[in-house]
Protein backbone atom coordinates (compact mmCIF):
# COMPACT_ATOMS: atom_id res chain seq x y z
CA UNK A 1 0.00 0.00 0.00
CA UNK A 2 2.70 2.49 0.99
CA UNK A 3 4.68 1.73 -2.16
CA UNK A 4 1.65 2.67 -4.26
CA UNK A 5 1.18 5.87 -2.27
CA UNK A 6 4.80 6.87 -2.93
CA UNK A 7 4.44 6.14 -6.65
CA UNK A 8 1.35 8.36 -6.72
CA UNK A 9 3.40 10.95 -4.81
CA UNK A 10 6.04 10.99 -7.58
CA UNK A 11 3.44 11.20 -10.36
CA UNK A 12 1.70 14.07 -8.59
CA UNK A 13 5.05 15.87 -8.20
CA UNK A 14 5.89 15.63 -11.91
CA UNK A 15 2.47 16.83 -13.04
CA UNK A 16 2.42 19.60 -10.47
CA UNK A 17 5.91 20.83 -11.44
CA UNK A 18 4.65 21.94 -14.84
CA UNK A 19 1.75 23.75 -13.17
CA UNK A 20 4.00 25.53 -10.67
CA UNK A 21 6.32 26.60 -13.48
CA UNK A 22 3.32 27.85 -15.43
CA UNK A 23 2.19 29.87 -12.40
CA UNK A 24 5.49 31.76 -12.57
CA UNK A 25 5.31 32.46 -16.30
CA UNK A 26 1.66 32.67 -17.36
CA UNK A 27 0.69 36.13 -16.14
CA UNK A 28 4.04 37.61 -17.21
CA UNK A 29 3.75 36.17 -20.72
CA UNK A 30 0.09 37.18 -20.88
CA UNK A 31 1.01 40.70 -19.82
CA UNK A 32 3.66 40.92 -22.53
CA UNK A 33 1.56 39.43 -25.34
CA UNK A 34 -1.90 40.89 -24.63
CA UNK A 35 -2.70 44.38 -25.87
CA UNK A 36 -5.32 44.75 -23.11
CA UNK A 37 -3.38 44.24 -19.87
CA UNK A 38 -6.53 43.30 -17.96
CA UNK A 39 -6.38 40.07 -19.99
CA UNK A 40 -2.95 39.14 -18.63
CA UNK A 41 -4.44 36.36 -16.48
CA UNK A 42 -6.70 35.06 -19.28
CA UNK A 43 -4.42 32.04 -20.02
CA UNK A 44 -4.67 30.99 -16.37
CA UNK A 45 -8.43 31.46 -16.45
CA UNK A 46 -8.74 29.32 -19.58
CA UNK A 47 -6.53 26.67 -18.01
CA UNK A 48 -8.70 26.54 -14.89
CA UNK A 49 -11.87 26.42 -17.01
CA UNK A 50 -10.42 23.43 -18.86
CA UNK A 51 -9.52 21.90 -15.49
CA UNK A 52 -13.15 22.23 -14.45
CA UNK A 53 -14.35 20.83 -17.77
CA UNK A 54 -12.05 17.82 -17.35
CA UNK A 55 -13.87 16.60 -14.24
CA UNK A 56 -16.84 14.88 -15.90
CA UNK A 57 -14.96 13.32 -18.89
CA UNK A 58 -12.24 12.20 -16.47
CA UNK A 59 -14.81 10.53 -14.25
CA UNK A 60 -16.20 8.67 -17.26
CA UNK A 61 -12.73 7.46 -18.27
CA UNK A 62 -11.91 6.43 -14.69
CA UNK A 63 -15.25 4.63 -14.34
CA UNK A 64 -14.95 2.73 -17.63
CA UNK A 65 -11.20 2.12 -18.00
CA UNK A 66 -9.73 2.63 -14.55
CA UNK A 67 -7.33 5.09 -12.98
CA UNK A 68 -4.16 4.28 -14.94
CA UNK A 69 -5.51 4.94 -18.49
CA UNK A 70 -7.07 8.14 -17.23
CA UNK A 71 -3.81 9.35 -15.73
CA UNK A 72 -1.96 8.54 -18.97
CA UNK A 73 -4.45 10.68 -20.91
CA UNK A 74 -3.84 13.48 -18.43
CA UNK A 75 -0.09 13.27 -18.94
CA UNK A 76 -0.54 13.45 -22.71
CA UNK A 77 -2.74 16.52 -22.30
CA UNK A 78 -0.14 18.25 -20.13
CA UNK A 79 2.57 17.52 -22.71
CA UNK A 80 0.42 18.89 -25.55
CA UNK A 81 -0.28 22.00 -23.50
CA UNK A 82 3.41 22.73 -22.89
CA UNK A 83 4.22 22.30 -26.58
CA UNK A 84 1.37 24.62 -27.61
CA UNK A 85 2.51 27.21 -25.06
CA UNK A 86 5.96 26.98 -26.64
CA UNK A 87 4.46 27.60 -30.08
CA UNK A 88 2.61 30.66 -28.75
CA UNK A 89 5.85 32.07 -27.36
CA UNK A 90 7.73 31.27 -30.58
CA UNK A 91 5.19 33.11 -32.76
CA UNK A 92 4.42 35.84 -30.21
CA UNK A 93 0.73 34.94 -30.58
CA UNK A 94 -1.45 35.58 -27.53
CA UNK A 95 -4.36 33.60 -29.00
CA UNK A 96 -2.22 30.54 -29.68
CA UNK A 97 -0.75 30.84 -26.19
CA UNK A 98 -4.26 30.84 -24.74
CA UNK A 99 -5.16 27.75 -26.79
CA UNK A 100 -2.31 25.89 -25.09
CA UNK A 101 -4.09 26.41 -21.79
CA UNK A 102 -6.88 24.04 -22.88
CA UNK A 103 -4.92 20.73 -23.03
CA UNK A 104 -2.77 21.91 -20.11
CA UNK A 105 -5.91 22.47 -18.05
CA UNK A 106 -7.36 19.10 -19.02
CA UNK A 107 -4.15 17.41 -17.92
CA UNK A 108 -4.09 19.33 -14.66
CA UNK A 109 -7.74 18.45 -14.00
CA UNK A 110 -7.08 14.74 -14.42
CA UNK A 111 -3.97 15.00 -12.22
CA UNK A 112 -6.17 16.26 -9.38
CA UNK A 113 -7.46 12.71 -9.03
CA UNK A 114 -4.12 11.40 -7.74
CA UNK A 115 -5.29 12.39 -4.25
CA UNK A 116 -8.46 10.36 -4.75
CA UNK A 117 -6.44 7.39 -5.97
CA UNK A 118 -4.42 7.64 -2.75
CA UNK A 119 -7.61 7.45 -0.67
CA UNK A 120 -8.60 4.31 -2.60
CA UNK A 121 -5.35 2.37 -2.13
CA UNK A 122 -5.13 3.24 1.59
CA UNK A 123 -6.90 1.68 4.55
CA UNK A 124 -9.46 3.93 6.33
CA UNK A 125 -7.06 4.54 9.21
CA UNK A 126 -4.21 5.52 6.88
CA UNK A 127 -6.38 7.51 4.45
CA UNK A 128 -5.79 11.05 5.85
CA UNK A 129 -2.02 10.48 5.79
CA UNK A 130 -2.13 8.96 2.29
CA UNK A 131 -4.09 11.90 0.88
CA UNK A 132 -1.84 14.50 2.48
CA UNK A 133 1.32 12.58 1.55
CA UNK A 134 0.42 12.39 -2.15
CA UNK A 135 -0.35 16.10 -2.09
CA UNK A 136 3.13 16.75 -0.70
CA UNK A 137 4.38 15.79 -4.14
CA UNK A 138 3.99 19.50 -4.64
CA UNK A 139 7.16 19.99 -2.59
CA UNK A 140 9.22 18.44 -5.37
CA UNK A 141 7.17 20.47 -7.82
CA UNK A 142 7.88 23.64 -5.84
CA UNK A 143 11.59 22.92 -5.96
CA UNK A 144 11.65 21.77 -9.57
CA UNK A 145 9.18 24.04 -11.39
CA UNK A 146 10.57 27.51 -10.52
CA UNK A 147 14.16 26.30 -10.76
CA UNK A 148 13.48 25.05 -14.28
CA UNK A 149 12.08 28.47 -15.12
CA UNK A 150 15.18 30.22 -13.75
CA UNK A 151 17.59 27.83 -15.48
CA UNK A 152 15.94 27.67 -18.91
CA UNK A 153 14.15 31.01 -19.44
CA UNK A 154 17.01 32.42 -21.57
CA UNK A 155 18.36 29.29 -23.27
CA UNK A 156 16.69 30.08 -26.62
CA UNK A 157 17.07 33.84 -27.14
CA UNK A 158 15.32 36.03 -28.03
CA UNK A 159 12.34 33.86 -27.06
CA UNK A 160 12.00 34.19 -23.30
CA UNK A 161 10.62 30.99 -21.66
CA UNK A 162 10.58 28.99 -24.92
CA UNK A 163 13.18 26.52 -23.63
CA UNK A 164 11.30 26.23 -20.35
CA UNK A 165 8.16 24.96 -22.05
CA UNK A 166 10.13 22.42 -24.08
CA UNK A 167 11.64 21.08 -20.86
CA UNK A 168 8.27 21.01 -19.10
CA UNK A 169 6.90 18.91 -21.97
CA UNK A 170 9.30 16.12 -20.93
CA UNK A 171 7.95 15.78 -17.37
CA UNK A 172 4.72 13.97 -18.39
CA UNK A 173 6.83 11.37 -20.20
CA UNK A 174 8.58 10.50 -16.94
CA UNK A 175 5.19 10.37 -15.22
CA UNK A 176 3.88 7.86 -17.77
CA UNK A 177 6.92 5.66 -17.16
CA UNK A 178 6.15 5.59 -13.41
CA UNK A 179 2.49 4.82 -14.07
CA UNK A 180 3.56 1.46 -15.49
CA UNK A 181 4.29 0.37 -11.90
CA UNK A 182 1.14 1.78 -10.29
CA UNK A 183 -1.52 -0.66 -9.04
CA UNK A 184 -4.85 0.83 -7.99
CA UNK A 185 -8.25 -0.81 -7.32
CA UNK A 186 -10.34 -1.48 -10.43
CA UNK A 187 -13.23 0.86 -11.17
CA UNK A 188 -16.56 -0.02 -9.53
CA UNK A 189 -18.91 -2.17 -11.58
CA UNK A 190 -21.17 -0.08 -13.79
CA UNK A 191 -24.21 -1.67 -12.11
CA UNK A 192 -22.79 -1.15 -8.60
CA UNK A 193 -25.65 1.21 -7.75
CA UNK A 194 -25.44 4.03 -5.27
CA UNK A 195 -27.13 7.39 -5.18
CA UNK A 196 -27.38 9.79 -8.09
CA UNK A 197 -25.09 12.80 -8.36
CA UNK A 198 -27.92 15.11 -7.31
CA UNK A 199 -28.62 13.05 -4.19
CA UNK A 200 -24.92 13.00 -3.29
CA UNK A 201 -24.69 16.77 -3.72
CA UNK A 202 -27.49 17.31 -1.19
CA UNK A 203 -25.60 15.58 1.62
CA UNK A 204 -24.31 18.00 4.29
CA UNK A 205 -20.82 16.46 4.22
CA UNK A 206 -20.61 16.96 0.45
CA UNK A 207 -21.90 20.53 0.61
CA UNK A 208 -19.40 21.46 3.32
CA UNK A 209 -16.51 19.72 1.52
CA UNK A 210 -17.30 21.38 -1.81
CA UNK A 211 -17.72 24.87 -0.35
CA UNK A 212 -14.53 24.54 1.71
CA UNK A 213 -12.59 23.28 -1.32
CA UNK A 214 -13.84 26.05 -3.59
CA UNK A 215 -13.02 28.73 -1.01
CA UNK A 216 -9.57 27.25 -0.35
CA UNK A 217 -8.58 27.01 -4.00
CA UNK A 218 -10.46 30.10 -5.19
CA UNK A 219 -8.98 32.52 -2.65
CA UNK A 220 -5.50 31.11 -3.13
CA UNK A 221 -5.72 31.40 -6.90
CA UNK A 222 -7.15 34.92 -6.77
CA UNK A 223 -4.06 36.21 -4.96
CA UNK A 224 -1.38 33.95 -6.44
CA UNK A 225 -2.27 34.62 -10.08
CA UNK A 226 -1.73 38.38 -9.90
CA UNK A 227 1.27 38.32 -7.57
CA UNK A 228 3.92 38.08 -10.36
CA UNK A 229 2.30 41.02 -12.17
CA UNK A 230 2.14 43.12 -8.98
CA UNK A 231 5.78 42.31 -8.26
CA UNK A 232 6.75 43.32 -11.79
CA UNK A 233 4.93 46.64 -11.34
CA UNK A 234 6.88 47.11 -8.09
CA UNK A 235 10.16 46.70 -9.96
CA UNK A 236 10.99 43.04 -9.22
CA UNK A 237 12.34 40.72 -11.91
CA UNK A 238 11.32 37.24 -13.02
CA UNK A 239 13.78 35.60 -10.62
CA UNK A 240 12.23 37.33 -7.62
CA UNK A 241 8.66 36.38 -8.56
CA UNK A 242 9.80 32.81 -9.26
CA UNK A 243 11.29 32.63 -5.77
CA UNK A 244 8.07 33.93 -4.19
CA UNK A 245 5.99 31.38 -6.11
CA UNK A 246 8.46 28.73 -4.99
CA UNK A 247 7.99 29.74 -1.35
CA UNK A 248 4.25 29.64 -1.89
CA UNK A 249 4.30 26.20 -3.49
CA UNK A 250 6.49 24.72 -0.74
CA UNK A 251 4.10 26.13 1.86
CA UNK A 252 1.17 24.66 -0.06
CA UNK A 253 2.45 21.11 -0.13
CA UNK A 254 5.10 20.84 2.58
CA UNK A 255 2.59 20.55 5.46
CA UNK A 256 1.23 17.41 3.81
CA UNK A 257 3.73 15.42 5.84
CA UNK A 258 1.83 16.30 9.01
CA UNK A 259 -1.61 17.65 7.99
CA UNK A 260 -3.06 14.14 8.05
CA UNK A 261 -1.81 13.64 11.59
CA UNK A 262 -3.28 17.01 12.63
CA UNK A 263 -6.66 15.97 11.23
CA UNK A 264 -6.49 12.64 13.06
CA UNK A 265 -5.62 14.35 16.33
CA UNK A 266 -7.66 17.57 16.29
CA UNK A 267 -10.37 16.86 13.73
CA UNK A 268 -11.18 18.25 10.30
CA UNK A 269 -13.11 21.27 11.63
CA UNK A 270 -10.18 22.61 13.66
CA UNK A 271 -7.69 22.19 10.80
CA UNK A 272 -9.96 23.93 8.27
CA UNK A 273 -10.60 26.79 10.71
CA UNK A 274 -6.85 27.22 11.21
CA UNK A 275 -6.42 27.31 7.42
CA UNK A 276 -9.02 30.06 7.07
CA UNK A 277 -7.30 32.08 9.81
CA UNK A 278 -3.94 31.76 8.03
CA UNK A 279 -5.46 32.92 4.74
CA UNK A 280 -6.89 35.97 6.50
CA UNK A 281 -3.43 36.63 7.96
CA UNK A 282 -2.04 36.58 4.41
CA UNK A 283 -4.42 39.40 3.51
CA UNK A 284 -3.20 41.45 6.47
CA UNK A 285 0.45 40.97 5.51
CA UNK A 286 -0.28 41.82 1.88
CA UNK A 287 -1.87 45.11 2.91
CA UNK A 288 1.09 46.14 5.09
CA UNK A 289 3.57 46.68 2.27
CA UNK A 290 5.03 45.54 -1.07
CA UNK A 291 8.62 44.63 -0.27
CA UNK A 292 10.03 41.25 -1.27
CA UNK A 293 9.57 40.09 2.34
CA UNK A 294 5.90 41.09 2.31
CA UNK A 295 5.24 39.16 -0.91
CA UNK A 296 7.22 36.11 0.23
CA UNK A 297 5.74 35.87 3.73
CA UNK A 298 2.19 36.58 2.55
CA UNK A 299 2.27 33.88 -0.12
CA UNK A 300 3.96 31.44 2.24
CA UNK A 301 1.16 31.92 4.78
CA UNK A 302 -1.40 31.69 1.95
CA UNK A 303 0.04 28.33 0.87
CA UNK A 304 -0.15 26.94 4.39
CA UNK A 305 -3.75 28.09 4.77
CA UNK A 306 -4.65 26.49 1.44
CA UNK A 307 -3.13 23.18 2.53
CA UNK A 308 -5.08 23.00 5.78
CA UNK A 309 -8.36 23.92 4.09
CA UNK A 310 -7.99 21.81 0.95
CA UNK A 311 -6.68 18.63 2.61
CA UNK A 312 -9.46 19.00 5.18
CA UNK A 313 -12.04 19.38 2.41
CA UNK A 314 -10.71 16.27 0.63
CA UNK A 315 -11.03 14.25 3.83
CA UNK A 316 -14.58 15.53 4.33
CA UNK A 317 -15.46 14.49 0.79
CA UNK A 318 -14.32 10.92 1.49
CA UNK A 319 -17.05 10.69 4.17
CA UNK A 320 -19.78 11.89 1.80
CA UNK A 321 -20.02 8.89 -0.51
CA UNK A 322 -19.85 5.11 -0.67
CA UNK A 323 -17.19 3.26 -2.72
CA UNK A 324 -19.68 2.79 -5.56
CA UNK A 325 -20.41 6.51 -5.62
CA UNK A 326 -16.84 7.79 -5.42
CA UNK A 327 -16.30 8.68 -9.09
CA UNK A 328 -19.58 10.62 -9.28
CA UNK A 329 -18.89 12.47 -6.04
CA UNK A 330 -15.30 13.32 -7.00
CA UNK A 331 -16.32 14.59 -10.45
CA UNK A 332 -19.08 16.78 -9.00
CA UNK A 333 -16.75 18.15 -6.34
CA UNK A 334 -13.94 19.03 -8.76
CA UNK A 335 -16.38 20.62 -11.21
CA UNK A 336 -17.54 22.95 -8.44
CA UNK A 337 -14.05 23.63 -7.08
CA UNK A 338 -12.30 24.28 -10.37
CA UNK A 339 -15.26 26.18 -11.78
CA UNK A 340 -14.66 28.58 -8.91
CA UNK A 341 -10.92 28.61 -9.59
CA UNK A 342 -11.61 29.51 -13.23
CA UNK A 343 -13.82 32.40 -12.13
CA UNK A 344 -11.16 33.72 -9.74
CA UNK A 345 -8.54 33.49 -12.48
CA UNK A 346 -10.75 35.57 -14.78
CA UNK A 347 -11.46 38.01 -11.95
CA UNK A 348 -7.89 38.28 -10.69
CA UNK A 349 -6.47 40.16 -13.66
CA UNK A 350 -9.53 42.36 -14.07
CA UNK A 351 -9.80 43.32 -10.39
CA UNK A 352 -6.06 43.90 -10.14
CA UNK A 353 -6.02 46.11 -13.26
CA UNK A 354 -9.14 48.07 -12.40
CA UNK A 355 -9.26 48.25 -8.59
CA UNK A 356 -5.72 47.53 -7.42
CA UNK A 357 -3.81 45.16 -5.16
CA UNK A 358 -5.50 46.18 -1.90
CA UNK A 359 -9.03 45.51 -3.16
CA UNK A 360 -7.90 42.18 -4.58
CA UNK A 361 -6.69 41.13 -1.13
CA UNK A 362 -9.81 42.32 0.70
CA UNK A 363 -12.03 40.38 -1.72
CA UNK A 364 -10.81 37.15 -0.07
CA UNK A 365 -12.38 37.82 3.34
CA UNK A 366 -16.11 37.27 2.55
CA UNK A 367 -15.31 33.86 1.04
CA UNK A 368 -13.43 32.81 4.16
CA UNK A 369 -16.43 33.82 6.29
CA UNK A 370 -18.64 31.59 4.10
CA UNK A 371 -16.36 28.57 4.60
CA UNK A 372 -16.31 29.03 8.37
CA UNK A 373 -20.09 29.37 8.41
CA UNK A 374 -20.44 26.05 6.54
CA UNK A 375 -18.10 24.29 8.99
CA UNK A 376 -20.08 25.70 11.93
CA UNK A 377 -23.35 24.61 10.30
CA UNK A 378 -22.20 21.02 9.83
CA UNK A 379 -20.77 20.87 13.34
CA UNK A 380 -24.02 22.18 14.86
CA UNK A 381 -26.04 19.75 12.77
CA UNK A 382 -23.89 16.84 13.91
CA UNK A 383 -24.23 17.93 17.53
CA UNK A 384 -28.04 18.05 17.23
CA UNK A 385 -28.11 14.59 15.67
CA UNK A 386 -25.86 13.21 18.42
CA UNK A 387 -28.10 14.75 21.09
CA UNK A 388 -31.19 13.34 19.44
CA UNK A 389 -29.53 9.93 19.26
TrEMBL record:
Pfam families: MFS_1 (PF07690). The chain crosses the membrane at residues 44-63, 70-88, 94-114, 126-145, 165-184, 205-224, 236-258, 270-289, 295-319, 331-351, 357-377. It comes from the Bacteria. This is MFS transporter. Residues 205-389 form the Major facilitator superfamily (MFS) profile domain. Keywords: Membrane, Signal, Transmembrane, Transmembrane helix. Residues 1-17 form the signal peptide. The keyword Transmembrane applies. The keyword Membrane applies.
Amino acid sequence: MKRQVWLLFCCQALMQAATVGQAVMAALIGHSLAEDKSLSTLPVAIQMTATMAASIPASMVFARLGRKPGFILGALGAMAGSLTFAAGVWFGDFTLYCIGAIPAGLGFGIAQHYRFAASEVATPAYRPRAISLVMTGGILAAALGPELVKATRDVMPPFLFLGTYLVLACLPLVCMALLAFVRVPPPPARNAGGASVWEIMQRPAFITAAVTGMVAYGTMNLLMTSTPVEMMLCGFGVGASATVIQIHAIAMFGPGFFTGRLITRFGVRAVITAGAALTALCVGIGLLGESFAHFGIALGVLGLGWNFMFVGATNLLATAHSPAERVRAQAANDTIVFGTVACTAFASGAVHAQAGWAVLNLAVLPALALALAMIAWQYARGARQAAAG
